Amino acid sequence: MNYRRLWPLCLLLLGGCSDYQWGWYVLDPSTDQGRVNLQFLLGGFNDTIQISLLSMIFAMSLGLLIALPALSHNKALLWLNRLYVEVIRSIPVLVLLLWVYYGMPTLMDISLNHFWAGVIALTIAESAFMAEVFRGGIQAINRGQHEAAESLGLDYWHKMRLVILPQALRQILPPLGNQFVYILKMSSLVSVIGLSDLTRRANELVVNEYLPLEIYSVLVLEYLLLILLVSQAVRWLEKRIAIPSY
């Protein structure tokens, strides 16, 4: 690999580009203006984290319910499962978000604010992927585990809750972590409907200060920090629940 080609990029990232006068003062915490701007920008963490966590929890619950019919031998249930998964996965998240925010209140005659419109849209979009993750994890469990649970007299729901799902969760934890990272990144789209998340606040600050490179660079670092923390948490949880090998 020719590392000399990376040198211009390193100079740019370090502020060494001679053709551009960096305006980091806009986010300098040692000045009143920079402190206010930085606090405003960091204030978006609350909405971003909340909408991502709620969407993840609801998407996991809905995805599990959608995955169960795919494990049955009923052709009608299998067909409904495939229809839902294929249709939802084919719709862009931004399009689904706009439809939920502008279309659902009209269709169902309800009042829907920015936050819950974002949660609903991300939940629906992510539930199709979660359904596939759960389906794959459950099907990966050895058939003998099913037979052992049935021999103990457990019905279907107790078998799934007490025997199959705990084992499946160990296997699907890495994909679940990947999907949470995906939700975190897709949550930036809720800025288009007015939710004051990280991306929305960055856009508003750019309009006021006219320094997009500096502000969006900090925005990149904010999302990078969130995603690195999630990745480390998933790795820690994997080690925590892993079956020890002797």
Could you tell me the CATH topology label. Answer: MetI-like fold
Which sequence of SSEs, written as H and E, runs from N to C?
HHHHHHHHHH
Subunit arrangement of the protein: single chain
* Gyration radius over CA: 23 Å
The CATH homologous superfamily is called MetI-like
* CATH architecture tag: Orthogonal Bundle
Strand content: under 5%
In angstroms, what separates the terminal alpha carbons? Answer: 41 Å
Low-confidence runs (pLDDT<50, min 5 residues)?
A: none
State the total count of DSSP E strands: 0
Number of domains: 1
Structural class, please? Answer: mainly alpha
Overall residue-averaged pLDDT value: 87
The geometry reads as elongated
Work out the helix count: 10
What's the helical proportion of residues? Answer: over 70%
Largest sheet: none
Tell me the name of the CATH class: Mainly Alpha
